[in-house]
Write the structure tokens for this entry.
Amino acid sequence: MKQVSYIFPISHHYRAPFHERLRAILSHHDVHYTVVYCAPRDENVKKNDTIDISWGEKVSSTAFPGGMIYQHGLMQAMKSDLVIIQQENKLLLNYILTIASRIGIKKVAYFGHGRNFQSRNREGLSERFKRFWATKVDWWFAYTEETRAHIQHLGFPSERITVFNNSVNTALMRQQLSASTEESRGALAESIGLAGKNVGVFVGGVYPDKRMEFLINAADRIRNQIPDFELIIIGGGADLPLVNKLAQTRPWIHVLGPRFGQEKIELMALGHVFMMPGLMGLAILDAGTVGLAIATTAFPWHSPEIAYLEPGISGLKVADWENTEAYAREVTALLLDRPALERMREGARAMADRYSIEAMAENFASGVLKALAA
């Protein structure tokens, strides 16, 4: 059997179904797929968003000054016919494998965005360094068509780029939503003290680019206009202490920390609008699957999945991204216009239906087979 390894720093909870599905598809083509990953570091420990994969290989890592990390996965890489690595400047093993690719002793592919969508300086040293190495591999697995366009622009051949359309396990979320009942949701609402009929929901990492103070300030303005407005915040991260402090004087804000599975879906189903004025990524599919209208801003540093949003159809994208009042005003207007809200909720469901972990794995597997044959 051909051997394919995907080497990455940590194993995120949300990625596990993708790896399982991809492994199953490739096994039908006599390809053995495995993952090689390391233990989570401080920030991901705080987020509590990692998981072990029983059939994967967990290796140690060594941290160096400047944030550089060496993953001790070279042995696993050299036994593979194709090695897939994440496109990150800080991963020292990448350079060894990329050089191996250049001299023709190892077939290597990148998995990534093509650039740092959160970079404040796209002409800075880090981004120029990333562009230099981006074309030095044999294959590319690109998050979205935007990534493909960027990689092509750098001179990488289009026929060696696979767009997989990054997703999460929307099928499982739909099953969990179907298993939810009005009674179970009512009991859950009572358990967290939720009483309002106009509910915003935030689910994701709680860190500076998510703009939690902006969110809570906007929530204050919304509540001034809609007295029974309440906000549910689900997730962990560096700014969770700040959020907890702000919520102490706002009993209508329910800060719940990280939640997963059925509980997370049922908590989301208590809401009407998904409020994420800062960085938006895969959470857009969580929101759409549950049927929440999406309310974000034209934040300049969104992740590539923001391309899935259709402003005016599946949600709001407030142009004046630094204006708390403008954001609050549009969310308030949406909550008060129930027909418009329901149309956007349905639009969000339709958006999420177009993407799935199954389609993502099929796209990715097709790319793996083409890369192996190239």
Observations:
- DSSP finds 15 helices and 15 strands in the chain.
- The two ends are 17 Å apart (CA to CA).
- The chain has a mean pLDDT of 94.
- The longest strand covers residues 2-10.
